[in-house]
Design brief:
The protein has a domain of about 130 residues: Rossmann fold. Helices cover about 35% and strands about 20% of the residues. It has six helices and nine strands; from the N terminus they run E-H-E-H-E-H-E-E-H-E-E-H-E-H-E. Helix 6 links the parallel strand 8 and strand 9. Helix 2 packs across helix 3 and helix 5 crosses helix 6. The termini are far apart.
Length: about 190
């Protein structure tokens, strides 16, 4: 992966989701945050317009991927996060990460405020979902705004109840936590 490439993330809220897109953004890879409620044509459309170099999906969502797999570009690797997958040729992300070197490889291209960090999709109420390009500067501004008005600090715990594929969950909830140093907590019943 290199700066300007895209990776589609079809995952439910969990720490690995955030770690994945933050890690990708550090080298300039754009994360396409795919709505986990999408199925069939809207899901396929969202993946196609993103033009991802790979698709990372949760094994709990693989039925949705399986429904569209024959229509996906065969050159785009499918990587799953979870315990197992029944999809042919899918790659277990954990096994792949175990083979990855922890050594930083240089040089990476400098990330600029005008560079995209993610694509967040509209709900598709007036047609198929449309990607909104969120640039580094817009992401930081969104996180800073909520941080500023809510007086967050590093001793706070922020509960992100919205899906991370949504701008409010990713930009406001996670972004404000990153800016403030606050912990993102998970509600336990």
């Amino acid at each position: 992966m290199k700066k300007g490439d895209c990776v589609a993330l079809f995952l439910e809220n969990k720490p690995e989701y955030v770690a994945t897109w933050i890690g990708l953004s550090k080298i300039g890879v754009i994360s396409s945050l795919i709505n986990t409620n999408l199925r069939n044509q809207p899901l396929l459309h969202s993946l196609e317009v993103s033009k991802p170099k790979c698709i990372i999906y949760s094994s709990s969502l693989e039925d949705a991927i399986e429904q569209i797999q024959t229509n996906l570009n065969k050159d785009i690797p499918l990587m799953f996060d979870g315990t197992h997958s029944k999809l042919v040729n899918s790659i277990h992300l954990e096994n792949l990460l175990e083979k990855t070197s922890s050594q930083l490889v240089y040089p990476y291209e400098k990330i600029k405020p005008s560079d995209p960090i993610m694509y967040v999709f509209t709900s598709g109420t007036t047609g198929l979902p449309k990607p909104a390009v969120i640039k580094q500067s817009r992401y930081c501004a969104g996180g800073m705004t909520f941080f500023d008005v809510s007086f967050l600090n590093k001793t706070d715990i922020v509960y992100v109840t919205l899906p991370i594929y949504h701008a409010n969950g990713a930009v406001i909830g996670i972004g404000a936590s990153i800016v403030s140093g606050a912990t993102v907590g998970k509600y336990k019943h």
